Amino acid sequence: MGLVFDSIVDGFSPIGEYIYAVDLTSLRVCTYAPGNASVLGFFQAKTIVGKEVDVPMCPRTILRKIVRQAEEMFYTKFFVGTETEFILLKSTVPPVPVNSQGWCASGALMTGAVETQVLEEIAKALIDDGIELQVFHSEAVNGQYEVVTGPLPPLEAADVLIHTRETIYNIAHKHGLRATLAPHLRRDKYGSGAHVHISVQEVPGTPPSPVWSEKPSLTRVEAQFLAGLLEHLPAVSALTLPLPQSYCRMTDGMHAGGTWVCWGVDNREAPIRLTNEAWPKSRNFEVKTVDGTSNPYLVLASLLAAGIIGIRDELNLVHDNCGGGRTAAEMTREERESKGVYRRLPLDIGTARKYLVEDEKLKELLGEEVVRVFVRVNEALGKAINRDGETEDMNETRLIEMY
Predict the structure, then answer these.
(1) Which backbone phi and psi does 215 adopt, to 5 degrees?
(2) Which one, of 403, 401, 399, 357, lies nearest residue 382 by Cα?
(3) What angle, rounded to 10 degrees, do the helices at 220-240 and 349-358 form?
(4) 382, 293 contact by CB (below 8 A)
(5) Average pLDDT, the chain
(6) pLDDT at 48
(7) Rounded CA gap, 207 and 249, in Å?
(8) SS3 state at 86
(9) Helices and strands, counts by H and E, the chain
(10) What pLDDT is stored for residue 49 in this prediction?
(11) pLDDT tens digits along 288-298
């Protein structure tokens, strides 16, 4: 947990170790690699029988804890769907995309093309591995694609996202390509995200949550969850957008969520987009301030923790729907304030880390030590990828080859 490339982060030591206890519920056959399977697990303490074995800093343990708290204390459960955007490259030095096609262009999936073979093999592998593949298509950047998988309980959704990424990487490599989740390449206008869809539901057997709003449709619990998410989104950004390059994607006018703390019905320029508004069972919040360099377990733990704070504290949703014809960035100051929009998201990782360290309520749920350790590791990772004295090209190559 404290190892960045080949260096130990300050505060960690080579002395001592944890057990990695496999979780057989996460076992999946890797059909892209016959004879192989993947399995995930939990870090556990080496201790005598009967003692506490959970390691507070284990990302899967953190997420499991947050989910249990929501169900046991607030009678709320979640379903999570994920999107994975990536670029297929013919070379990394310099980065050359596999084609020059754009969003949903038929030319991006021509019969017999290597990229078509890659996407079709990815789709077949995911389906054969028991994962619900909802759609794949080309995206806005040359050589960019998106794979969307269906809703699952949070821990399983994070496991599936890990498996999906490994499937993409391996099948691309098999065909002589490099798949990268890098959030932004300097040659491109748009970037690659990893949007998360969160559906808020009551635990079966509990009384239904009262309706908070008819238009747009939201229950009281959904409104409280959204209020908490908006309140703590600047701090959560450190975990969901963990690298300096992450913030090159998060600009206004790029359909990436923009820079203002707001939400809207089917508003792609809001960091939180309410989708399927009229259907309670599939209604969900799409969080756009996430990219593929983030840890899926920490992403979901922090997003859900922020929403749980809203439910626990019975927060009032003071932000109005920004679902009209103008985005928050296009509004005047007076128009934004009439919608309850006063704050901007952090515009760099340093500011995001500051928000995280100062957010006492979020630290309470995630764990203060977890936040301290994350900040140290995150600072070291940023420096390891973006090295002083090296060119931007060299740093970008390292980012591509790491992610």
Answers:
(1) -145, 100
(2) 399
(3) 130
(4) no
(5) 92
(6) 66
(7) 42
(8) strand
(9) 11, 15
(10) 66
(11) 999 999 999 99
Strands (E), 19-75: 19-29, 37-44
3-class DSSP state for residue 388? coil
| Spatial contact of 227 and 277, defined as CB atoms under 8 Å apart | no
pLDDT score, position 12: 79
Say if CB 177 and CB 169 are below 8 A apart: no
Residue where the block lists tokens 């969850």: 225
Cβ contact 272:226 at 8 Å: yes
How does pLDDT run across 13-57, given as a tens digit for each residue?
788 888 899 999 999 999 999 999 999 999 998 876 667 788 888
Residue 63, CA atoms < 13 Å, CB-side half-sphere: 22
Lowest mean per-residue pLDDT among 69-73, 251-255, 317-321, 356-360: 251-255
Torsion angle of the four alpha carbons 279, 264, 272, 189, in this order, in degrees rounded to the nearest 10: 120
In this prediction, residues 300-316 reach a mean pLDDT of 97
Secondary structure of the chain: what % helix, strand, coil (to 5)?
A: 35, 20, 40
Q: Torsions phi, psi of 263, nearest 5?
A: -145, 165
User: 20, exposed or middle or buried, with CB in 10 Å at 0-12, 13-18, 19+?
Assistant: exposed
DSSP state, residue 79: E
Q: Which long-range contacts (CB under 8 A, 24 or more apart) does 110-119 make?
A: 114/175, 114/176, 114/177, 115/88, 115/143, 115/145, 115/177, 117/175, 118/88, 118/171, 118/172, 118/175, 118/177, 119/145
As given in the structure block, the two tokens for residue 113 are 């093309």
Identify the pLDDT of residue 50. 63
Q: Which residues contact 375 (CB under 8 A, 6 or more apart)?
A: 238, 353, 356, 357
